[in-house]
Fold this protein.
Amino acid sequence: MKKIYNLLSTILVVSCILLANTASAQVPAGPSDATTPPPANATAVGKVLCAGSTISISGPQDVGGVDYTAYQWYKLDASGTRQLTTQTGRTYTETATGAGYYNYEVVTVNASGCTSPPSDPFQIFVLPPLTATITPSATTICAGVGTTLLTANTTPTSAAGYTFNYQWTRNGSPITGATGNTYAVANETTPATVTFGVNVTYTLNSSCSGSATQDIIVAPIPTKPTITAN
């Protein structure tokens, strides 16, 4: 009889493990939706995060400011189907592993075992990593008279639906008014190597940024020549 009991217990434990693994395998890894264009503004979603951030969201509390007995967290897949996660606390956390929309719902369970209807979906948008490069029209200019146009390039590009803020720098110091995606270098009168840079941020979240620098050589102009007779 004892052997039968042990066998049944083992079967029950194995079954629970298999069910748990099956349930967790259904939860989509990464974003719920990685193809829809980004939101028009940050207020269109619950939150906008930088690439690789930790997603942390919380459910409500019961009367008296105490946590519910359990929280059933659901993550929506690309088709909008709810998948039950293994997290049951008031706070749900997940590391963002890709850019796109992460969509969640929560159900609360009180001490009497009564369950609430699902919450409205909560949507988080995770931005892709932002990288910047600078393309110069020339890397060497003549002191006092030479010019070069610096163009900031981004990945992702604006064609993907993103908008950006720009701030150009000269030897590490911000250049007043230089906030476009291009900057014209002019009036460099002292021969030297000058480092120009650009810091690019998403308008959806200005803490998500990328930067690049470009050295420009300001070459001296030969002195005024004189002509002598042979």
